[in-house]
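Recap from last week: sequence in, structure out.
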Amino acid sequence: MTKAAAGRAARTSVWLEERTRRSGGRGGQPSGLDRQRITEVTVRLLDAEGLAKFSMRRLATELSVTAMSVYWYVDTKDDLLELALDAAFGELRLPDPDAAEDWRDQLRALATEYRALLVRHPWLSPLAGTYLNIGPNHLAFSRVVQRVIRGAGLPARGVTGAISAVFQFVYGYGTIEGHFFARAAETGMSPDDYFQEAMSSVSEVPETAEVIEESRNLMAARGGDTVAEMMDRDFVFALDLLVAGIEAMVERG
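Predicted structure tokens:
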């Protein structure tokens, strides 16, 4: 293993750093800054400009400090992105798994919240697959998900598979949806106008027109007057299929 590869492998998580660094940095740090503020501004920049344009220098400019000032609170850009990732998960409204509520309703609520989070923060999906995701907000989300799925009555060996089926679906759906809305925003068009223009373009090309024509009846049957309505209908139906699958596996025992 090369020295560079060994260095990459050695990195674990910002949440596993020593307590003094996690709680606020070293002595003599610049006044007016703390990790919470730096993380909040990072999330705002990622929302506004995207992951590709984010840099420590850009963040420092937004904070009106030098780049070195930021490094009093985080060692690397990776650390900061990991903090921003967990901060975003803190936006999720989590149901109480101990409440007298049907697990199906709680699962649908969790899936809907996660989808909305991915759409709201398109930069989140690539980061979610990059880091260990052991920050407090993500751990709280994971714990509630596990308890809700266990409440369905599946055997223990099937719980992680059910979680994967539901939340990897939501991850993929929310990622594509988020990228679509971000792309439409970049063109200055509404999502509906962008969709109509794209559909018109591909309908005029022989290689794609046939596929679009074959799909036309299915798209009409789906219903919905806007892109958002169409996406909502597909999401709800797909989620119902997954819930029905869990119910069937519980009955099978």
